[in-house]
Amino acid sequence: MIVDLHNHTKLCNHAEGEINEYIEKAIENNTKYFGFSDHAPMDFDPKYRMSFEQMAKYENDVLDAKEKYKDQIEILLGYEVDYLAGHMDERVLHAERVDYLIGSVHFLDGWGFDNPEFIGKYEEQNIDEIWQEYFNTIQKMAESRLFDIVGHLDLIKVFKFMPNKNIIDIAQKALNAIKEADMTLELNVAGYRKPIKEAYPSRTLLEECFKLKIPITFASDAHKPEQVGLFNDNIIKLAKSVGYTQCVYYKNRKKNFIDF
Ligand SMILES: [Zn+2]
Ligand SMILES: [Zn+2]
Predict the structure, then answer these.
(1) pTM of the predicted protein model
(2) How far is the CA of 126 from the centre of ligand 2 (A)?
(3) Over the chain (260 residues), what is each successive 10-residue block's mean pLDDT?
(4) I want to staple 100 with a disulfide (CB 3.0 to 4.6 A). Which of 78, 84, 215, 240 is the partner?
(5) Quick one: three-class SS letters along 76-120?
(6) What's the CA-to-centroid distance between 122 and ligand 2, angstroms?
């Protein structure tokens, strides 16, 4: 796929492989703009992310690779940042060398809802309420205006606990806030590797985003080199079938559009 902005490195302690292996896989896939957006450091759940001390190494390694591969592919530098009140750090939010920040919600009230270890919690609360709380948090994330890209918009579906209420009704305010904040939505294939077995977001949500003219980008969300570009045909097809013809990449926190 031509643009692929969400990829991890082993610095986050739950990914494998070397930076150059990810890039070589992306070149094989004819990617023009390939971004690393590893989990940013945070003083919450520090096991699954780099430390603050490792930020410089991460950025230097990606920028060295950018130089090394510049004739074959354009490498971009980002972070995937947890939207978690009280735990977002200026060193990340104002990291000077980044091209973009992805804002993601992985925690609701401290509950790591996409971690199978804590799956039991889905049975303890009304599922509609869980979904509403999730999208309320996405809305706040957009309203914070701290981020460029919305990470995996409907991650809350990961284990297939689906709401009884209409999903568009649950998500509408969040989608409006994303539009208002001029953010980009990623089409992320990680869902194909999870019980839900489909992209984030669903076709229904993507159609609504298209109506609102919210721009899109593409994301392997690779945690191993062999995941780079996996299922990319699916999301390209999905985006085209909804009506999208262009996608976005960021340089220096500015949007650029390209046909896909
Ligand atoms: Zn991860
Ligand atoms: Zn994520």
Answers:
(1) 0.98
(2) 24
(3) 96 97 97 98 96 98 98 98 97 97 97 96 97 98 98 98 98 98 98 98 98 98 98 96 98 98
(4) 78
(5) EEEEEEECCCCCCCHHHHCCCCCCEEEEECCEECCEECCCHHHHH
(6) 19
